[in-house]
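Consider one such protein record:
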Amino acid sequence: MKILLTGANGYIGMWLLPVLVRDGHEVVCLMRDKGRMKVDKSLKENISFYEADLLKEETLQNLPEDLDAAYYLVHSIGASPDYEKLEAKAAHNFVDNIKKTNCKQIIYLSGIVNDQDLSKHLRSRKNVEDILMKSGVPTTVLRAGIIIGSGGASFEMIRDLIEKLPVMVAPKWVSTKSQPIALHNVLQYLTGVLLRNKAYNRVFDIGGPEVLTYKQMLLHYAEVRKLKRYIISVPALSPRVSSLWLYFVTSTSFDLARGLVDSMKNQVIVQHKGIEEIVQIELIPYKEAVQKACGH
């Protein structure tokens, strides 16, 4: 199959690309600058590049017509204070041009958006979902919570906090519940729904086998790394102070930290089920996912 991969040099895209190639697919990587991406020599024969900027519609007018499917893995959180508008514009430009091809399915990795009062970040993800679902091209939306894998923003934040701070005075969001999922399971779901009719025009929440608070995730990470850590929750820390705290302690940018903190008020627990009927996999427990992410 011929597959368009947007966000090919992003976190999930970089992990998904070799999986798709090894599954025998021809992959077209859509990116602004192909020179920024390093590809293993063993994969190059089945990869081509299409240089384009999703915010500039004129660069998308010559997409390959013979596409079978397209992965939409573009997110702009932290890139600009106006990222909601940018994400909507990019999605509209993508839809307007993918409709001109023979693409049979769009697959979008979103976030779990089941709370009524969504953060700006999750509200934007939901808006992009709506734009893609209204495209007329069969669309599959996979909504994930925190993805446990090396390189992911939330996981790297957890890693930095535990590796650097023996005692942590943490904001109240450490009590928020989440359903983290291993990166390996996310990749299995992304490839498992590919051109599956039963997945067309449907939304699925994907999560791991456990519901944990952020505090539990932090302490479980410490257990895996055999580190003694103590966490004290302080409800008085404002979102701005929490963001500054993450910015100074971890390797994340302030804008990204602000987006993450804003989202941490929302519980991200699986509600829209049904993916297990289409893709049967063994879900990896949190501690095992951490071990894999840490290279153990």
Remarks:
- DSSP finds nine helices and 13 strands in the chain.
- The mean pLDDT is 86.
- Residues 189 and 279 are 7 Å apart (CA to CA).
